[in-house]
Amino acid sequence: GGQRALIRESWRRLSGSPEQHGLVLFSRLFDLDPDLLPLFQYNCKQFASPQECLSAPEFLDHIRKVMLVIDSAVSHLENLSCLEEYLCNLGKKHQAVGVKVESFSTVGESLLYMLEKCLGAAFSPEVQEAWSKLYSAVVKAMQRGWES
Length: 148
Ligand code: HEM
Fold this sequence. Notes:
The chain is mainly α. 70% of the residues lie in helices and 3% in strands. It has helices at 2-13, 18-32, 50-54, 57-75, 84-96, 103-119, 125-147; strands at 41-42, 45-46. It has a two-stranded antiparallel ribbon with strand order 1-2. A hairpin with a 2-residue loop joins strand 1 (41-42) and strand 2 (45-46). Helix 6 (103-119) runs antiparallel to helix 7 (125-147). The longest helix has 23 residues, at 125-147. Protoporphyrin IX containing FE (HEM) is lined by residues 36, 39-40, 58, 62, 65-66, 69, 90, 93-94, 97, 99, 103, 107.
């Protein structure tokens, strides 16, 4: 359908530098909810500031992982159910590290913010609507990890 084409086209525009775009997303996330910062700990070490976190190699790996999950959702728009088990397990892992399911709506806001910043004029209301739907489907699947 038209929404799938809009998603593919807009994601293709961002395909050059996933890490850069992920940084825009996570900078926004820490602006909106600084309490998420302590959830990112590598070797039990807490980051002193969002800036420190955003420049740590382990955190940049997490950014790449997030962008890869979004990329695979975009590749499976016709059959998102293929990803359901993977996403449910991913939800469980996030519950285990202390993420609250509610925080994923702030992540969603940050994703839309990143798309708006990075797509510029190409970020139409239709594009926003299409991404909101896709993101909701991904979160719904991850949420199952909290329920069980
Ligand atoms: C792993 C935190 C959002 C995808 C992790 C880990 C932490 C974490 C602490 C384990 C350490 C690491 O691998 O870096 C968070 C927090 C989030 C968030 C606080 C937002 C509130 C997301 C989102 C996605 C995602 C939105 C993708 C849609 C992943 C993946 C892994 C991971 C793929 C690796 C899982 C594995 O090892 O199998 N996350 N995350 N994360 N996260 Fe997140």
